[in-house]
Write a structure and sequence with these properties.
It comes from Flagellimonas oceani. Belongs to the aldo/keto reductase family. It is a single chain. This protein has a single domain, classed as TIM Barrel (Alpha-Beta Barrel). Helix content is about 40%, strand content about 15%. The strands form two sheets. It has a seven-stranded parallel β-sheet. The chain has helices at about 30-45, 60-65, 90-100, 120-130, 145-155, 175-180, 205-210, 215-225, 240-245, 255-260, 275-285; strands spanning about 10, 15-20, 20-25, 50, 75-80, 105-110, 135-140, 160-165, 185-190. With about 290 residues, it is of the alpha/beta class.
Length: about 290
């Protein structure tokens, strides 16, 4: 799915409009740095801020939102439910805690962070919270297609978003097509593969960027949004925040898109979400910080 060079948002399956680019705050562990980064991002033009209970920085994000001069209704805030809080009642409590930390009356998207634990009970709690107006859109994260379709088949509300690892080395094309056929949007985390496989010096991405005067990061984000995939790149540096946001004045051509498609290695740059040892660790309530 391509998107025109000036289109900066997508419409989810429930009619909610979601920005195509946002700021991810994973691994922003210093509260002051996180707060200032979010403020800088909002000043730069970012409107989507993506956090999670497991990141431990919802308070810092909330402080930045409160100090920002941008009206709340113009911002798009995502947070996520961790494994240790799955189940109907636990989810209600965890969501209330996240809302308190964020100092908000509602969030725009609430995601189940992993397909582990009683996420069926969690989904029903999220359906109720959505109906109460406390969540504008509910979704999932790191659900492989078979887990996503199973959840979809047995519940009332179809997930709006499935946040997945997607980058040039793990392109998830078939997964995207399958989910979009079910009206579920893919959103990319780790768009830069966290620098793995010499990402920032990749020759193909560097050469594609030269005629446009764009960096490897900008080419990658442009490639993703042209596929209709929202992105949430993380940076704590003002100049990089500005660079990442500046992807709307060029458009990759078909040759560029084909060249990038050849970089796909077809596997995660981090870990296998189907690995029993990974699931065991999550079941012990410990987030993985790679």
């Amino acid at each position: 799915m391509n998107t025109s060079s000036d289109k900066r948002s997508i419409v989810l399956n429930n009619g909610v409009e979601m920005p195509l680019i946002g700021l991810g705050v994973f691994q922003m562990n210093d509260p002051r740095e996180c707060e200032q980064t979010v403020l800088t991002a909002i000043e730069t033009g970012y409107r989507l801020i993506d956090t999670a209970a497991a990141y431990g920085n919802e308070v810092a994000v909330g402080n930045a939102i409160r100090k920002s001069s941008v009206p709340r209704e113009e911002l798009f805030i995502t947070t996520k439910l961790w494994v240790s809080d799955t189940g109907y009642e636990n989810t209600k409590k965890a969501f209330a805690n996240s809302l308190k930390k964020l100092q908000l009356e509602y969030v725009d998207v609430y995601l189940i962070h992993q397909a582990v634990g009683d996420y069926y009970g969690s989904w029903r709690a999220m359906e109720d919270l959505h109906k109460e107006g406390k969540i504008r859109a509910i979704g999932i994260s790191n659900f492989y297609p078979e887990r996503a379709i199973d959840l979809l088949a047995h519940n009332e509300i179809v997930p709006t978003v499935n946040q997945l690892e997607v980058h040039p080395f793990y392109q998830r094309v078939k997964t995207q097509h399958y989910l979009e056929d079910k009206q579920v949007r893919v959103q990319s985390w780790a768009s830069f593969a966290e620098g793995r496989n010499h990402f920032f010096t990749n020759e193909t991405l560097s050469e594609i960027g030269k005629p446009y005067g764009k960096s490897v990061a900008q080419v990658t984000l442009r490639w993703l949004v042209q596929r209709g995939i929202p992105v949430i790149p993380k940076s704590v540096h003002r100049e990089r925040l500005i660079e990442n946001f500046n992807i709307w004045d060029f458009e990759l051509n078909e040759t560029d898109m084909t060249s990038i498609s050849r970089l796909d290695l077809g596997k995660s740059a981090f870990f296998n979400h189907r690995d029993p040892e990974i699931i065991k660790r999550w079941a012990q309530r410990r987030p993985i910080h790679y």
